[in-house]
Every structure is written in structure tokens, then in C-alpha cells.
Amino acid sequence: MNDMSLHAGTLPHRLHNRAPQWHDSLPRAAFGITAGAYGLMLLVYWMTFGAEAEGALMVAVSTIYVIMFFGVPWVMARLGETMLRQRHGGRAAPKLDDFLQTGIQTWTGPMTGWSALIQVTLIPVGLAFATLGICIAVAMAR
């Protein structure tokens, strides 16, 4: 048998010797990146509009909403952590580097870790940078 008769499925590869280990949840860092992006937006809003009473009131209400938006799921996850671990076979949320090297199993099929992380964090990070640019323009126009 010559080398040209080998099929691609029989070629040795480092991934062929182990089963794929797709994660079934996102790493906590994905939520941290999202929360950090919203925190940056609020900081920029406070710096831009917090000097006047009307603006400070609006930003304070938005701050309360963001705290509730991230706080309620965080508290619920802490309260139900043992139930979540049982559902995920005793595993905690994956570490970021493990997640990026493998990926996640979704309803429509597996995704690489990088593509899943980008899909989750792209909009919040993009909004944070857009907010920063708009608030810089507002500050320069004053």
C-alpha cells in the first residue's frame, strides 16, 4: 500500500486520539467581559452627564437598572450553583483558556470557543466603545 492510498480520515492527527470535549456553558469570563463593558458605559455616562442634577438622575436610574440586570442572575446562579453543577455532571463553568481551546455545544451544533466568545461579547464591547466616542464628542462640543 503506498502513501497515496491513505484516506484523510485515517491520517494521524493529535486530535484523533481523544474525544472532543465540548463545554455546555460559557466561562465566567464571558459574563465578566459583558459586565465590564456595561460598567465602562456607565462610567463614561457619569463622567459626561453626572455634573448636572437632571443628567445625574437619569444616569442613576440607568445604574440601578444595570445593577439589577447583572445582580439578579448573579444571585440566582450563586443560590442554585449545586443544582447547576448536578445538571452539568458535577462540572463548574469552564476556565477561559480551556473554553477557547475547545468550544461549546449549542442547539444548532458545536462552535469554537473563540466564535462563541465573540458572539456573546461583540455587541456590549462595541456599544462601550461607541458610547466612549459619543461622550468624547459631547464633551468636546461643550
Structural key phrases:
single chain; 142 residues; mainly alpha; 2 strands; elongated
Description:
The protein is mainly α and about 140 residues long. Helix content is about 65%, strand content about 5%. The protein has 5 helices and 2 strands. It has a two-stranded antiparallel ribbon. α1 packs antiparallel against α2 and α1 packs parallel to α5. The longest helix has 29 residues.
Instruction: Kindly provide the radius of gyration, computed on alpha-carbon positions and rounded to a whole number of angstroms.
Output: 22 Å
What shape does the CA trace take? elongated
Number of helices: 5
- SSE order in H/E notation? HHHHEEH
Number of strands: 2
Give the mean pLDDT.
Answer: 84
* N- and C-termini, Cα separation: 79 Å
- Largest sheet strand order: 1-2
Low-pLDDT windows of residues: 1-8
Largest sheet: 2 strands, antiparallel
* Helix fraction bin: 55-70%
Helix/strand/pairing class, anyone?
mainly alpha
As a percent range, the share of strand residues is 5-15%
